[in-house]
Specification:
The chain is of the alpha+beta class and about 500 residues long. The chain is built from 16 helices and 23 strands. The strands form 7 sheets. It has a 7-stranded mixed sheet with strand order 2-11-10-9-7-3-4, sandwiched between helices. A hairpin with a 4-residue loop joins strand 5 and strand 6. Helix 4 packs across helix 5, helix 4 packs across helix 9 and helix 6 packs parallel to helix 7. It is globular, with a radius of gyration of 23 Å.
Length: about 500
Amino acid sequence: MRRIFNEQLREYCSRDYYPWHMPGHKRQRIETFAAKGPKAGVEGLHETGFGFDLDVTEVPGLDNLHVPEGVLAESLAQLPQVYGSVKSYYLVNGSTAGILTAVSALCDRGDTIIMSRNCHKAVYNIVALLDLAPVYLYPEMMEPYGICGSIIPEQVEQVLREHPEAKAVIFPSPTYEGVISDVRTISRIVHRAGSRLIVDAAHGAHLEFGAGFPEAAIRCGADLVIESLHKTLPCYTQCAILHVGTGEINDRLTAVSADCRELTEQVEWYLRVYQTSSPSYLFVAGMEDCIATMEEWRDTRMMEYHDRLKRYRMSWSELQALHLLTAEEVQNAGGFAYDESKLVFCMPEGGPDGESFCRELEARYGMVLEMATLNYGLAMTSVMDTEEGYERLDRALQEIDRRLAGAAVSSQHSSHAIDTLTERSGRMVFLPGTALKMKSGMTVLSEAAGQIAADYVTVYPPGIPVLVPGEEISAVQKAYIMQCIETGLTVHGLKWISQGEKVPCVEVIRE
């Protein structure tokens, strides 16, 4: 057979594209970056097949990731010293495995879980698998960008009063766009209510190592925290870490220790369920190397990284048409804190949408951003970015900004999107797990309002479901999905039928 994907991968990586997206290694080897400094070029790029010489799994002398007793146990024992956790675990199946494990460890089938409506689809999947009853938290929306803000502690407290039976609370912090919630305060509220706190910190693996960045969630009293090492650190795609935190269940150390012991036993059992039985030790070695490297770089390259970000952010604050989201704006909108490693370029009123902006950056300038929405384009940075990369992005932004400003585009920020999350969420008629098992059929999207969704529809990235099984589809949801399709965003979960031209359809309940 032809190596079709291999050929395409090699061809793509040979182009002069700069990756303003995950994974955080930015296609550079750590040793090359360290040896040549932040101006290292293409000679540091990974090649297809790199690492085959280290790609082994559970052979004699290398221990067993699922039941570590030797060298892996020693490696894992170092992680709490780095993170301040009770225990931490390498994840070879990504943050998804960590989320599935965390929820399963705290919730039994049919339990109530409190979750933010902007959780990743992995949370919705485990809610459906366990037939959990979700109660939603709605972050404030940052208008006019359509960006989800922080989870408000007072809202968590109110929902817990209304649902004292809830076994767990889960939300993302930081979000894809870098918005951070007050995890410490929320943790105290959750534990006073007798519940447990899970934080999806997939986008915050770098926070632990960064002078000038907000505090990491594992330091703020959460019970379980999941971080994707590969998103913002120099590590292989699919590598993540799960932390068991000390929590704040009560002040008696013996009780906390006993509780943590029970929790870690549950976590370890479910990790054996959700992770592959043939873990890649290349991934494990990469994670250990990544964390060891970041420990060494705390006071050196991480400080250089933060200073470079600050310098370019200051320059980009002077753009006339494009607008770079700031920490001050997030906090003025009620947000707790902001991770400035995320570069959110908001589109001007009357200007291009985020997708068109990202397409132009790629086609004309070789700058590939992480994500586009109707309102903005998102560039993800990491400690591995080079000065050359920043300079190239700066030149591209300055040229685009001059053109937009010269075309007399208003400097007022865009309002391309329907930007109230509560309006984008339908009324729950059936639990997601129940709805997925019911009889369903297709209906044309334009006629779907008022019907009940039988499957997920998700704009990806960021992977937050617009439609959830069991929810009544609102006219606003329908309009939002159609707008995303027309703009060219990637929408998962649609079916297409031919009526002269392809027409989008969704699965709805027929019972």
